[in-house]
Amino acid sequence: IVVRFFVINTLLSMGALIGQPMLLYRSLIMNEQNSHLVCPHCQATNRIPVAKLSAAPNCGKCGQPLLTGSPHELNAQTVGKVIQKNEVLTIVDFWASWCQPCLMMAPQFKAAAAKLPQVVFAKIQTDKYEQAAAPYNIRSLPTMVAFKNGREVARQSGALPSDQIVQWVKS
Length: 171
Prior knowledge:
34% of the residues lie in helices and 22% in strands. The chain is of the alpha/beta class. Strands 3-5-4-6-7 form a five-stranded mixed beta sheet, with helices on both faces. The protein has a two-stranded antiparallel ribbon with strand order 1-2.
């Protein structure tokens, strides 16, 4: 921190930061230690220090827990924001109400979420929100897709028991 303070003061004295000292402060200090997390309750994007992600952070807007340890339902308006804005690992279960393996896996997905409270678990009903699920090229149900920083990092099709879901997420 002393070195960063020295660098900022040096650049300020050289006139390099005229009109933009806060921008440099954010880029040097704020962004490298924080992670964005979308509130499952009010959809506000929160900036949380990475070191405090394990301390059950609450939303700055609504005060509800950000990491709930249970899957939350996404809809056409929220699916894009949750996937694109969350910088923590986010597991999305693409399912349908007519799909028996999906319905059998639902309690397993919930149990896996409880075992991994630092991971965001979410579900989207593809028969209800077809257009919202379409960009993710879901070809079979159920399909779990892991996202981090808005990018797909892994995909698993088929129903799994909770222990295998946890193992897949950790791999």
